[in-house]
Specification:
The chain is about 5% helix and about 40% strand. By secondary structure, it is mostly beta strands. The protein binds dTDP-4-keto-6-deoxyglucose (T46). Its EC number is 5.1.3.13.
């Protein structure tokens, strides 16, 4: 039961496809395998698992990241519905600094995304009642959390739908300064 891993254009961002084995009862699939994914996640150990429930199509969450000692790998999986996941490379030394990718995560495709430290993450909900599961390699510490405004002109993220729900906090996130040099990891 091999996971299929696809390195995306931003170094360290990997799409993981889990084959689904179906029969009359339903299906079985593996969502994570340390042996297969340890090459993509340094010092592989998860500290927290989170669940994101999203009622309304068009909802946007993010873009968030954790800093310094709390920088983390995230494995993000859509376990119900469909979302457009967006990852922005904020790493100062990265060849893809300030580049972004968007990947459709959906329960039907049984795919997930590995997001490395130094990348900001956000998503837009494409179907009502979509849910995400997150695996985190660091504890959540609000004092070490950073964020980028979802409409930062420097990033020009093309959100596919008009935004229906967004938190006050996310609306208040800053745009990147013009002379932003990136995060040092
Ligand atoms: C992230 C997080 C939040 N919380 C508390 C803090 C708030 O009281 C409440 C909701 O938090 P927030 O509005 O930050 O949740 P999201 O906007 O979904 O944040 C997430 O969405 C973006 C797209 C991500 O990539 C991160 O996983 C995460 O930042 O849960 C916790 O207790 N632990 C946590 O790990």
């Amino acid at each position: 039961m091999q996971l299929e891993c696809f390195q995306k254009p931003i170094k360290g961002v990997v799409e993981v496809l889990s084959p689904r084995f179906g029969d009359e009862r339903g299906s079985f699939s593996r969502w994570f395998c340390a042996e297969q994914l340890c090459d993509y996640i340094e010092n592989l150990s998860f500290r927290q698992i989170n669940h994101s429930e999203n009622f309304l199509k068009g909802t946007v969450r993010g873009l968030h990241y954790q800093l310094g000692p709390q920088r983390e790998y995230k494995v993000v999986r859509c376990i119900r519905g469909r979302v457009l996941d967006v990852v922005v490379d904020l790493r100062e030394t990265s060849d893809t600094f300030l580049q972004l990718i968007s990947v459709e995560l959906c329960a039907a495709r049984n795919n997930a995304l590995i997001i490395p430290p130094g990348c900001a993450h956000g998503f837009q909900v494409l179907e009502h009642d979509s849910q995400l599961l997150y695996l985190h390699t660091a504890d959540y510490l609000p004092n070490y959390e950073g964020g980028v405004h979802l409409k930062d002109p420097m990033l020009n993220i093309q959100w596919p739908l008009s935004i229906t729900e967004i938190s006050v906090r996310d609306i208040g996130l800053p745009e990147l300064p013009e002379n932003f040099k990136g995060l040092s990891l």
